[in-house]
Amino acid sequence: MATYNKFNSFVEALAEKVHNLGSDQLKVALTNSAPSASNTVLANITEISYSNLSSRNITTSTSSQTSGTYKLVLSDLTLTASGSVGPFRYIVVYNDTASNDELIGWYDYGSSVTLASGDSFLCDFDASGGAITIT
Amino acid sequence: MAWVAEEKFNGYSDGNLAGNNGGTGWAGAWSNNATNQVTVQGTTVYEGAKAAKTNNSSGATDYRRTLTSAVSGDGNVLYVVMSRSGISNSGDQSFIFRNASGQSRCAVKLDAAQNLVISGSTSVTLLSNFSFNTKYVIRLTLNVTSGTITGAYSTTAFGGTGTFSAESAAATMSNSGDIDRVNINDDQETGTNMLDYISPTIPFSVVQNLTLAMDTGSFTLAGQDASLGRLLTLVADTGSYVFSGATAMFRKMGWVPVTKNNVTMSNTGKNNSTWTPVDKT
Predict the structure, then answer these.
(1) Lower CB count within 10 Å: N or C terminus of chain B?
(2) In angstroms, what separates the C-alpha of A86 from chain B's closest C-alpha?
């Protein structure tokens, strides 16, 4: 399982109404350069070309709290290539609705990947534990 | 010995398959073991110019070809492409693997029940209700030592990009011994049942289906002890007021005994006030 890596700015952004995780459009960005915890916005990420890639929009399943623990559950996202895509290694989740596309978190696939036409890449979010919890 | 033989039928003339000796890994030419012919044709093909039409409306067909080296051991993978145009006479279309004694060890079939199956002493269905005229690329794994066969299928065109179905459960082979030959066997059927591309090489590119399982990101808000305003305390000392009686002057007014001639006056007042005698009236 790929570890969730935090962008330091996320917690402040969350506290200052930058993110509405229940309604904002979250999205994945792909990069072959390791993100830094000090990155704050999408402009800080060196993205690959998406010209041969299907939609990167993430569907939010639930955004709710139970007994004081908040959980954001995201639907799995399958990225399908219609031509060459990549190489990329890192998957960044960001808020496409926020003013500056503020960053949320990132994952490391472990090695660089190049997709050929017809290849798919499944972002398998944890449906039980959630993508993000806040206690 | 692993499976190495390859037959694509491309260099043959149309007509009887028997006597054709192309491809690689074969000890000799195709031979006809039945009355009716398996024919080479260029109308229904999977790859290249030609393929074999395995059925004959006049009767059952049975063609054989012997391998240069018998296939032994486990994990022998080969690909064969088959299609069927219909089921007219309740017959099976089969590609059979036999031992040196000619006994069947296992087979792959587009059978009369319209199932794609692998079989030996037991059968496993790879696909139920296969589609007519669809060319099925069948991947077979022959485990000769273990005596089993597994399979998977795809409908990907030659040179394309696709995936196989999940590997099937194992069917148990019949009899014993290394695989020495193959048989093309088809019952009396109308239409065109095709067999093409016998090869150890996959005929298309397999797509990557990658998965990244993403961990949960946890954020914890640690509540800090909060001071709920300043609690001011005024310890009020006791205000002491000492009441001390002030010197009070009391003066009594009244008659005092007066002696006529002698006046004795005594001071009755605290402040030594002087009495002034007065005549008695």
Answers:
(1) C
(2) 13
First to last CA, chain B: 170
Are B222 and B102 within 8 A, CB to CB?
A: no
Read off the pLDDT of each residue in B48-69 and give the average, rounded to a whole number.
96
- CA A61 to chain B, closest CA, distance in angstroms equals 15
- The answer to whether A130 contacts B213, with C-beta atoms less than 8 Å apart, is no
What span, in angstroms and rounded, lies between the C-alpha atoms of B58 and B127? 28
* Mean pLDDT, rounded, for B229-257: 50
Average pLDDT (B182-203) is 96
Residue range A54-107, pLDDT digits in tens: 999 999 999 999 999 999 999 999 999 988 899 999 999 999 999 999 999 999
β-pairing, B61-71 with B76-83? unpaired
Find, among B58, B23, B67, B25, the residue nearest to B39 by Cα: B58
Question: Is residue A13 within 8 Å of residue A73, measured between CB atoms?
Answer: no
Tell me how far apart the alpha carbons of residues A26 and B191 are, in angstroms, rounded to a whole number.
55
Residues in A closer than 8 angstroms to B218, CB to CB, are 4, 132-135
Mutation to test the A interface, candidates B156, B211, B214, most A Cβ within 10 Å: B214
pLDDT, tens digit (0-9, with 9 covering 90-100), for B200-214? 999 998 877 788 889
CA atoms of A57 and B66, how far apart (whole Å)? 56
Tell me the chain B residues in contact with residue A115 when contact means C-beta distances shorter than 8 Å: 208, 210
* Closest A-chain CA to B162: A118
Structure tokens at B13: 């003339």
Q: In this complex, do A118 and B214 lie within 8 Å of one another by their Cβ atoms?
A: no
Enter the tokens of residue B217. Answer: 């990101």
- What's residue B236's pLDDT? 60
